[in-house]
Write a structure and sequence with these properties.
heterodimer; A: alpha/beta; Rossmann fold; 2 domains; 10 strands; B: mainly alpha; 10 helices; about 0% strand
Amino acid sequence: MGAKVELRDVDRVYGDVQALSPTNQVLEPGTFTTLVGPSGCGKSTLLDIIAGLNKGNGGQVLIDGSPSTGPRRETGVIFQEAAVLPWRTVLDNTAFALETQKVPVRKRREIAREVLQRVGLSDFVNHYPHQLSGGMRQRVAIARVLSTDPDLILADEPFGALDEQTRVVLGLELLKVVRQGGATVLFVTHSIQEAALLSDRVLVMGARPGKILLDLHVDLPPDRDPTMVGSPVATALVEQIWTVLKSEAQRAMVEQGPRS
Amino acid sequence: MSLSTAVTPRTQAGRSRGVLASIGWILILPAVILIGWAITAATVDSLVFPGPLQSLARLGEDLSEPGFRQSIVSTVTLLLAGWSLAVIVGTLVGFALGLSNFWSAVFETPLFALYSIPKVTLYPVFLLFLGIGDASRLTFAFFHGVFPIALLVMAATRSMDKNFLKLADVLVLPWYTRLRLILIPALLPSIVTAVRIAFGLTLLGLILAEMFSAQSGLGRELVSNVANVRVDHIAGQVVFIAILAVIPGFALRWGEKRITRRYGS
């Protein structure tokens, strides 16, 4: 069962810059929420605050009703670049989180093999990360997160460095496997199409100060496929998000003034 | 998605042939030097330019002398002690400084400046404080080896993939697990490189110290031969010191390659 995440007046200031305005949101258990917005709008800051990696200046994060005091083992975090350990095989990378939780070798390898099968890497268990493509390495990182059966998954632009096709395929794979486990997901991206295709809900963020401008429900069937990007629902959603982000971008350009 | 490396099984015989071939390649350069030396010595035909056979014969004589053997034991003991100390202190200092951006910025420039000073100019200071003997030799050798280790480990710690540290944070790892499972394996390739480089520099420092002031040691043997103009003995002992430096150097390089392959990205 997924965790319920509540943000109560959470904000973050860096010097004179309000990176994140006071934010109030609730992520319902088992939902897939995407946070979309331009670079530097505070998406990653918000995600880090929920992960316990960054202490906000004010407000409170409640996870299943308890105030968050720092990182928790039940939360899985997927970084932008696959944080896989180059000296470990795919199997041992996948079992790494379980190893740190003192799960016996046989048990953790059994779980790792099962998770690797779910992400389609069964044939690569004994390979090292340098023998894999970028997309495969990111799948190893996802497998490590899934191995601990987290109730909350936070993904910070995990497919940002990949090409469009691989990104869509991996995004749908991630959606499928998290649906099986029932975890709550917060997925940060700057791709509007990715947001529309993967999510139950899209939060659109604007910069200066970073705040959530739009909260949209995605009215697509739970099982997604790449063709849905062209559906009328997705197209309308993309247009709606784009309209808001375009005016944000224009406002930012006016604030910055002419370059020369 | 493609697989870039295909793993081919190698037979025991194939591996042995590979090792023999690489040893063969390694021996080419010494063989060329030896032949070049013999030809030059024969051409010059001078008392102050002994050939390899003559030099090796003198080395054989030296090796049968208990005093020379005592010098070897003394040098090797101090080398191992100085090198081990340099490795331990250099790694710990480099690691501790590298963990903090502030402290590594504070110490980086002075450490580099100290490293660039020809250390031999500071030797009188060592003699002044530690006197003639093993203490000054050991400290001077250690002084040569510790800086490159500290600088290399500091740079490696600072430039470590920050995602590894973030991973340790999200997995809520205690410091000892973080050290054992992430930091040490991530830094191991840089540490072994530093250890290899420090070996040669520690030996250099030790031989230099022995040449200036010592009751025993290979450096002292060299200097006493210079005073007696025994060029053939000098040449034989230089060959011996070269072997003492080169064989562990090759072994360390081999270990470094294996560790880099295993732990490097």
